[in-house]
Amino acid sequence: MSIQPTWRLSGIEVVMMVEYVKFKIPTKQVSETKGVADLIEKAEEEGVKTAWHRFLEQQPQCGFGLLGICCRNCNMGPCRIDPFGAGPTKGVCGADADTIVARNILRMIAAGAAAHSDHARDIVHVFKGAATGEFKGYKLTDVEKLKGLAKALGIEIEGKTESEIALEVAHILEWEFGKPDDEPLKLLMATAPKKRIKVWERLGVMPRAIDREVCECMHRTHMGVDADPASLLLHGVRTSLADGWSGSMMATYLSDILFGTPKPIKSEANLGVLKEDYVNIIVHGHNPILSTKIVEVAMSEEMQKLAEKYGAKGVSVAGMCCTGNEVLMRLGIPPAGNFLMQELAIITGAVEAIIVDYQCIMPSLIDVAGCYHTKIITTEPKGHIPGAVHIEFKPEKADEIAREIVKIAIENYPNRPREIVNIPKHKVEMVAGFSVEAIVEALGGTLEPLINALREGTIKGIVGIVGCTNPKVKHNYSHVTLAKELIKRDILVVGTGCWGIAAAMEGLMSPKAAELAGPGLKVICEALGIPPCLHMGSCVDCSRILIALGALADALGVDIPDLPAAGSAPEWMSEKAVSIGTYFVASGVFTHLGVVPPVLGSQKVTKLLTDDIEDLLGGKFYVEPDPIKAAETIYNVIIEKRKKLKWPV
Amino acid sequence: MSLLGTNLERPTIYIDPKKCMGCRSCEIACAVEHSMSKTLFGAIFEKPTPKPRLKVMIADFFNVPLRCQHCEDAPCMKVCPTGAIKKSEEGFVILNANKCIGCLMCVMACPFGHPKYEPEYKVVLKCDSCIERIRGGKEPACVEACPTKALKFGTLEEILNEVRKERAEELISGLKVPGIVYMEPVVGEKKKEEKASPMDVYTAYLEVKWY
């Protein structure tokens, strides 16, 4: 059939392609990152769909969902509220737009907090096993940090062995999830600034147990429980605090104790880190427990030799998403890309295996891998994907299982379809691993130089940028543009997650990027030899930003909302980001969102989140997709805060 | 033929893209209506798979539920070599599947891109405006399913009156109609603040969208 119907999608011709790939993507406009366009073109030539293709197929996306006014919480529904008022204004149960929007956003927070905290639960399990010696493959690496944590939790450490201390810490942290009393979370009490705790106490949002708050979210949003948007959102605040100051915090602390607190480490980023003549393994997901083992085993003499037997020069590991960040900042493993680039890595044709645990793994990896030789290996009992090879990971047999997985990858090397391999040449140097401890060390052992720089106005403020990538907006454009605009204005940018990889691929995490910074920040970066954008870790490590803000506020004797600081999630998409955004706001941070959250269907909820909440918590949300305008606003907010502190602007 | 070429009593459908949420409820309702069982849970298991006759398309920031316009002077009817497309008494353009040979002439002739060839059916499928429902005194399935009344059904006269009324209200409440208007707007009593629509979400991405 020779008909080629053309559809117009906001000015771009969308041409019918091969039957499988319906849309042709305007590749040059899709991404800010080099190499992405070439690989999407390659995918189209080979008849492979990517997230961008599926995004176009999904258009138009349902307006009820976009505005957050559909409810599927009970089976009298599904119900929808007509935003124009001609149709129904209430669901069958009588819930109006305000209730429905608030309930939906609360469920998003619950899912996000659950994801981070369940990740933490797995780490506590391994931490405990390492302390008792049950899990031979793991040991307590950073004992200083362990002792510090124990002291903060009020554990007497004199005369106790490392493993005794660790067991006591593990005991307290295990109880964080499900302790039955109404006492506030212990890790939150140990790490959060006292002034903040008072604010939360006054509001009655002190979290009691992580699982309990998530459970209560599900209860409150069940048919016929909580209908008051304000009360629903306050519980969202409580749940997110349980995530940020306990769940995520715990994941960060224990990962550091188990695998070492990150220190500045050189690496490279972008798809060019895949190697032509090597067995390429990608670790993808979030948990460092498995990925660190994979890296250790893959780099061993035994595996390198085995690879040579199969005709490769050796084994090379690259990271993807946040587990990529975890192995990047501790072991210097180069990240191949961020969230939306997971399919592109397979499309290079040069990846033998992608080893995944959980979160942000697109099920489409199986479809894409089906067109190449790549093996997708799932490892978590809670993360199965039909069509993947499933090798269940058990910490007691960590090395053994890692060896089995790496072997599968190596044995797959001869199947590589050499005629269609195309690895983009782009890769950029970067420095990662700026944990709070590393930043303090770079400053000479104390926060004083940073505080002085802030007070004098050499650095105007600090902004934490975090979050995913989202096909609704140009890939990585907002991430790098916002960061560039901010450092130009002498604002130090720190961040985590997929933003970290985006900024690295743009070269913003190389000390050379100091050139792009404003005069004040440039001097500081050059003096310390650090980049103007600091990589603080994976998305669970947003807790590091909380610690840094808390330490700065305490040192200055003020509360976090008084600090010239802000947060941003320019391209967020996951429910975890909603939880992160909420605990940032709850911790008193002005938080920018670059993708519109599904709340516009209720004017009341929108106003609560972007306005009223500031009086209660000191932080609020601000939505602006255009990163240039957002940078301007964030700068103005920071200047206002400096004025209040009577600091020069 | 008159200027509109249409008699004002003719039942017709009005599409208001401003109100379309893009939820595609109309597409599902249409497929169900044209299934054997005429129920959702029955239709999803049928072979050949029931197909919607209309499709929600995006044009700039608007969602447009594009359906057959049942033209007065229908090009599809003119080009059909087998005479499969005929007008009903009510003025609807109806395709007789038994006479259709799948030559796709109508597909190419239609200025709205409406008729659709379905390999599973081996014939062209087009909107019949739910003629059986209308004869039974009901609205077409797509109109009934629309939760925001972006699709309206009635005689041409009724619809034109309704549209006129809406425009007049807009004019009075806040002078939303562009252009020069020679009338004094009513001040003081202002309509409640406009609620957000999907269009607000789409337009927010002007600077950062790639599609």
Which tags fit this structure?
A: 649 residues, alpha/beta, Substrate Binding Domain Of Dnak, Chain:A, Domain 2, Rossmann fold, 26 helices, B: 211 residues, Alpha-Beta Plaits, two-stranded antiparallel sheet, two-stranded antiparallel ribbon, 8 helices
Q: Short summary of the structure?
A:
The complex is a heterodimer of chains A (649) and B (211). With 649 residues, chain A is of the alpha/beta class.
Characterization of this structure:
The complex is a heterodimer of chains A (649) and B (211). In chain A, the strands form 5 sheets. A 6-stranded parallel sheet of chain A has the order 8-7-6-9-10-11. Chain A has a 6-stranded parallel sheet with strand order 15-14-13-16-17-18, sandwiched between helices. Chain A starts with 5 loop residues before the first strand and ends in a 5-residue tail after the last helix. Chain A folds into 4 domains: 6-57, no CATH class; 97-259, Substrate Binding Domain Of Dnak, Chain:A, Domain 2; 271-420, Rossmann fold (3-Layer(aba) Sandwich), CATH 3.40.50.2030; 437-644, 3-Layer(aba) Sandwich (Rossmann fold), CATH 3.40.50. Chain A has 26 helices and 18 strands. In chain A, 48% of the residues lie in helices and 11% in strands. The model of chain B is unreliable at 1-5 (pLDDT under 50). Chain B contains 8 helices and 8 strands. Chain B has helices at 25-33, 40-43, 75-79, 105-109, 131-135, 141-145, 156-174, 198-204, and strands at 11-15, 55-59, 62-66, 85-87, 93-95, 116-118, 123-125, 151-155. Chain B is an alpha+beta fold. The interface between A and B is large, with 49 and 35 residues.
